[in-house]
Amino acid sequence: MARKKIKLALIANVTARNNTFNKRKKGIMKKMSELSTLCGVKACGIIYGTNGAQPEVWPSLLGAREVLNFFKSLPQMAKSKKMENHAEYLSQRIGKVRDQLRRLQKENRKKEMTMLMYECLKGKDLYDLTMLDITDLTNVIDENMKAINYRIEVLEQTPTQIGTSTTMAGAMSIENNKAVQVDMNGLQAQAWFVQGMNPNERMSCFDNKFVLPYLDNGAFTAPFFP
Amino acid sequence: MARKKIKLALIANVTARNNTFNKRKKGIMKKMSELSTLCGVKACGIIYGTNGAQPEVWPSLLGAREVLNFFKSLPQMAKSKKMENHAEYLSQRIGKVRDQLRRLQKENRKKEMTMLMYECLKGKDLYDLTMLDITDLTNVIDENMKAINYRIEVLEQTPTQIGTSTTMAGAMSIENNKAVQVDMNGLQAQAWFVQGMNPNERMSCFDNKFVLPYLDNGAFTAPFFP
DNA sequence: CCAGCTATTTATAATAT
DNA sequence: TATATTATAAATAGCTG
Fold this sequence. Notes:
By secondary structure, chain A is mainly alpha-helical.
């Protein structure tokens, strides 16, 4: 996390991997301790070493055993009452995250279309665009045209003031496309829950369509050429 | 860790505590996941909720059970082979940290004496100082005198250059006294290990004398008035 | 209560010692 | 190899809506 951002993959260099392991293990155990103190909750962390060394345990072997006993007391299968509760909790959570994902996908779609609009202004042709792209692009252009026309009206009423600070450029600037990244992080902590599901169940949590029109009013907006 | 540094104690405000709990839990589980990926090790984290809610588990119930089974297989008492290994590992670690603590205590002692020297220059009397204080103070003053004399020699060889950037003030500036804080943090992760010890064992890990002369050459250096 | 936003604090990757 | 330092990336406390 410093000097350079590293990829989330096994660190090839063994020395560097051990260094990172020791540093991060320490950091995690410290954070465990802090969470336990700050929030007054029980917690335990167990991290195995690389070379068959004893695992690092926080807060204690006894504490870990206590947690272990709790899990032992649970039935083995996913039909357990606790498990169902957990499943219900996760279903709700997945629902919320899915909604958030949809929102962010729409935002991204709008930004993509805005960027596409600028490319068109610079001369890009439209032959490789799908009908959906063109429809959404039209909507973006319409919105911007409205904003521009409104701006023109305002300026015509105050003809001496040219070049104020509230130009369209500010409102139309392109930001980074981050929806997928954010949402995957949000889901990551719960990813284990779906590992055992069959593919159909797993996919049913999310939309199969990765491209949604960014407008809220239904699946298909008016075609480009009416 | 932001906007303000908070004390490491139970957060009184319940709302704030829950917010912190949720944020930090997410952060810890993310770090667990990263460590596992980056270093290719098994790890598991279990964090109980506040209101009897199901604990958050990473990476999975199955993974946690695996870890649990490992611990179940260990004998119950501290006489276990594994436990002895762990104890040995921790003994080594305590030894290292103790050495580090000594080093830092010496550093602090020197800084305290330097500060004391400045106070004396501003007129503080010496009646409430112990003989040990005075001895160490003398050593610090001697060192500084040597440095000053050396500096004078250098300056006498280049008499036209007055007021270079390498003044004594830079070398003698007082920094924060941080040894104890640093070392306590280092020990914190292992603190559970000594919790079960009786007081004698516990204290034997460290020196009973909290004030050490900062020089390496033995317990008592030459007295102030020979 | 939950999501998003900064100002800060922490954690840590790379480097130096 | 281990420890210390530094520059940078992440985490997060207190707010805001």
